[in-house]
Amino acid sequence: MEIKPGFKIVVEKIELYKLPPRWVFLKVYTNQPGLTGWGEPVIEGRSDTVMAAVKELSAYVIGQRIDNIENIWQTLYRGGFYRGGPILMSAISGIDQALWDIKGKALNRPVYDLLGGAVRNKMKIYGWIGGDKPSNIAEAARQRLNAGFTAVKMNGTAEMEWIDTPQKIQEAVDRAAAVRVEVGPEAGIGIDFHGRVHKGMAKVLAKELEPFKLMFIEEPVLTENNEALKAIRSLIATPIATGERMFSRWDFKQVFMDGTVDIIQPDLSHAGGITEVKKIAVMAEAYDVALAPHCPLGPISFASALQIDFNCINAFIQESSIGIHYNEGADLLDYLNNPEDFQIKDGYISLLQKPGLGVDINETLVKELSRNAPDWKNPLWYNADGSVTEW
User: Fold this and answer.
1) 294 is annotated as an active-site residue
2) Number of C-alpha atoms within 13 angstroms, CB side, residue 261?
3) What does the alpha-carbon distance between residue 373 and residue 365 come to, in Å, rounded to a whole number?
4) Residue (of 100, 121, 101, 120) closest to 276 by Cα position
5) Prediction pTM value
6) Are 268 and 278 spatial neighbours (Cβ–Cβ below 8 Å)?
7) Topology at the third CATH level for domain 117-356
8) Is 325 tagged catalytic?
9) Are 284 and 291 spatial neighbours (Cβ–Cβ below 8 Å)?
10) Fewest beta carbons less than 10 Å away: which of 6, 124, 131, 215?
11) Sequence-distant (≥ 6) Cβ neighbours of residue 126 within 8 angstroms
12) pLDDT tens, 20-67?
């Protein structure tokens, strides 16, 4: 693509596509014929709300030069009296991803080059095993290792009462033990508490799981209860990870200052996109905290995370939704014309080489499947007494 010197590339139009299994793709058009960018703005289970936010924000983006990504980001964030939160930050994320995609394509460079260049030539990836109510975990772990992964993550429990039974704890311990036996001492195992476990049980569960030398425990308590991480931290040596429900650098400030987390997991589709997650990652580096971006979503979000991973020295592993139990109707690489660029070998994905985000989207398939996209909602779970509990 040849762009004349001095040619001002501006945003002309934004299109949105709601897609199976539970994703939203965004396409940004420019006044340069053929120069477009893709983003993925979504909150799982709140797709329509985020799409409405993107449409509302588009008035601040159309007509703007794609060179000015930082200024556009600041305008979208600070231009309203109320700011932050999952909906607004997810809308900003998708727009931001698409602008970086365009800028990379315009300059014929991958996004990580525009951020300062790559610090590694491949990125370690982990795969999900089991569903929301985990079963057959050991077999699923073996399948992941056979598929080329060297690390896996699983849900620790299904629904949990505020104070639950020793049996629930033992079931979680037995699952972890079965996976460790199956994969051996070399493979990494992450266990996601998913915010389902309240402080009283999180302390017990974290301590009981420690003998299995986990890669990390994730969201041992809900983000709004992060002060409880101090108590958990005092009991265990296992690395603590959190951050998928934290949406800006200001949300992360306190956990950095408290020294209660070892790994942060901002989501490239929820935490302000590439522009903001890069800043969060740099803050984390200053506090000696590792980075492992959250990504149970689609290929654009995944590619955006990889661009950050290749550029940030504290990124140590990347989540992937390949084959995750939510992916009904489409899997991670199904919308790509270049799935070979994202193949996992010996637990890693090689450095992406294509300009922009590195995704070549199959737009024909996107348009076809967007006609009957499901309206995915997360399950509603209830305790035995009928009270609602965390999913």
Assistant:
1) yes
2) 29
3) 12
4) 100
5) 0.95
6) no
7) TIM Barrel (3.20.20)
8) no
9) yes
10) 6
11) 149, 151, 152, 153, 188, 190, 215, 317, 318, 319, 320
12) 999 999 999 999 999 999 999 999 999 999 999 999 999 999 999 998
